[in-house]
Design brief:
The structure holds two protein chains of two kinds. Helices cover 14% and strands 39% of the residues of chain A. By secondary structure, chain A is mostly beta strands. Chain A has two domains: 5-53, no CATH class; 62-245, Lipocalin. In chain A, strands 3-4-5-6 form a four-stranded antiparallel beta sheet. In chain A, a hairpin with a 2-residue loop joins strand 12 and strand 13. The longest helix of chain A has 8 residues, at 16-23. The model of chain A is unreliable at 1-7 (pLDDT under 50). By secondary structure, chain B is mainly alpha-helical. In chain B, a hairpin with a 5-residue loop joins strand 1 and strand 2. Classes of the chains: A mainly beta, B mainly alpha. The A-B interface holds A 6-7, 9-15, 17-18, 21-27, 29-30, 32-39, 42, 46, 111, 136, 139, 141, 143, 169, 193 and B 61, 107-108, 111-112, 114-115, 118, 126-127, 130-131, 133-134, 137-139, 141-142, 145-146, 149-151, 154, 158, 161-162, 165-166, 168-169, 171-174.
């Protein structure tokens, strides 16, 4: 009788259930690294069906906050179970500068959007260049990209991070540019981590000035919906366009 | 989670069932211990496994089954108490000590054990062994894991696919 394969190498006959059971007990950083173990592990970890996806550690369930005077960033683990903790001093971001030159702007689906003033001498107006940093606190990896240059009279007050790990591994950052004299929206800036560049989308409705005073937003199914004054502004990141309603 | 009361209580001898491994070895155990397996529990509730019949387990060999039953026998009293909410700290410490030693075994036995635990749906054993394997591979490189688990090295196409993935998504990971 032929020897059953499980006898020779039992681990090779692990079912997906067993592999998920094992991986679900590992920190997210290990799980990501283990995509390179085999093609079946890669498929299981990156495109797993929803019932598996929820079992794998995807990110930290946690709460970040900043204390001012003196500026200090904190991390609160709110799960209370064995979720791997991270260093609250946020070492991955400290390479960008002292904590006083870093600020949290937004978070979305486990990623954080921060601003940081780059080290080096200030420009003639005593401003140091501002950069954005998007960080995955679970893996302590980050990318930095420069802010856009605005024209005189323009201001970009609100910055949003849009990320949905179930749809894409790429994120978008949205900035609304406002005409300071008219207080109305003139264009929307969309940064895509896929292309690594900013796209400027003009409003095109100069006759119908849109008074812009954003309050709350929600990112859902690839669209960012922003409640602004009496209207809802919807940004479509795939098409690089936006519309208003209301 | 409590094992079903089969009515024999503490009065008479506990009800016994027979399990038959893939290599035809017969194991006689208390029904309460075998009932830690969700798979076996229904059969046992229906009165199966007694007398000369026995329950065949074609996916579990005798070496693995004897190890599985060692776990079940040790954990059955606590499970019968409904997960042992009123177990003393000493009892719990003793079970923990047993568990730690129980998984301190040869890797191939460990792998057979995790598959048997899944087949038989023994929740506590599944999670105990999964935790042990997770601890074994934590911090290892993908290549070391392939060695640890006895996986073959990836084909060039497989490697290329994984490299492409890491190149695209690596910014967020490693």
């Amino acid at each position: 009788m032929e020897e059953p394969p499980g006898r020779r190498n039992p681990a090779a006959s692990f079912t997906d259930d067993i592999i998920i059971e094992i991986l679900s007990r590992l920190p997210v950083r290990s799980v990501c690294r283990f995509k390179c173990v085999s093609r079946s592990w890669l498929n299981l970890i990156s495109d797993s069906d929803p019932c598996y996806r929820n079992k794998l550690p995807q990110t930290l369930v946690s709460f970040f906050y900043t204390i001012h005077y003196p500026v200090d960033h904190h991390f609160a683990n709110i799960t209370g179970d064995g979720t791997p903790s991270i260093d609250p001093s946020f070492p991955s971001l400290s390479v960008l500068g002292s904590s006083s030159s870093i600020g949290l702007l937004d978070s979305c689906d486990g990623l954080l959007l921060c601003y940081c003033f780059m080290p080096g001498p200030p420009d003639s107006d005593w401003f140091r260049p501002l950069h954005f940093a998007v960080c995955n606190p679970a893996t302590e990896n980050w990318v930095v990209f420069p802010d856009v240059m605005l024209s005189d009279g323009e201001a970009a007050e609100v910055v949003r991070l849009c990320f949905d790990r179930t749809v894409s591994r790429h994120f978008h950052v949205i900035q609304y540019v406002i005409d300071q004299n008219e207080d109305c929206l003139t264009r929307v800036l969309i940064y895509s981590s896929k292309t690594g560049s900013w796209t400027s989308v003009e409003s095109g409705w100069h006759d119908d000035a849109f008074y812009f005073n954003p309050g709350r937003s929600v990112f859902l199914n690839g669209f960012l919906h922003e409640i602004a004054y009496s209207k809802v502004l919807t940004v479509d990141m795939e098409k690089n366009s936006y519309t208003t309603r209301g | 989670m409590a094992a079903p009361e089969s009515g024999d209580g503490n009065n008479g001898a506990a009800r016994m069932v027979t399990l038959i491994s893939s290599d035809n070895t017969r194991f006689e155990v208390e029904a309460a211990a075998a009932s830690l397996s969700q798979t076996l529990q229904l059969t046992i509730l229906d009165g199966g496994g007694g007398g000369g019949d026995g329950i065949p387990l074609p996916n579990v060999d005798s070496a693995t089954l004897s190890k599985v039953l060692e776990y079940c026998i040790k954990h059955a009293p606590a499970a019968a108490n409904g997960g042992a909410p009123n177990a003393t700290a000493v009892d719990r410490a003793e079970l923990e000590r047993f568990d730690n030693e129980f998984v301190n075994i040869d890797q191939s036995v460990l792998y057979s054990l995790i598959m048997a635990a899944h087949n038989l749906e023994i929740e506590g054993l599944q999670s105990l062994v999964a935790k042990k394997v997770a601890d074994m591979i934590k911090g290892k490189s993908p290549m070391e894991i392939r060695r640890t688990l006895g996986f073959p090295d990836p084909t060039p196409e497989e490697q290329a696919e994984m490299n492409a993935h890491m190149l695209e998504y690596g910014w967020a990971y490693e």
